[in-house]
Predict the 3D structure of the following.
Amino acid sequence: MVNPAMIFKMKSMWDEFTRSHPKLPKFFQAVVSRPLEEGTIIEMTIRRPNGDTLTSNVKLTASDLDLIEQIKELGTANIS
């Protein structure tokens, strides 16, 4: 069962996060404005304050896209 107080707390935290980092939600909106395609590369880089860097990427396959669709449907099913 979903705890309404936790949802309210998470919403408040998300609002604070987006105020602090307004470019990130806009980036995600741009990403989802077009469907992902097989062969798309998703890359992530982490840069720590001490200068350490870690980078990884994935090239999306058809099964990855199926998983993404299932996750989207699960999220939509829980909202309605």
Remarks:
- The first strand starts at residue 41 and ends at 47.
- The first helix runs from residue 4 to 20.
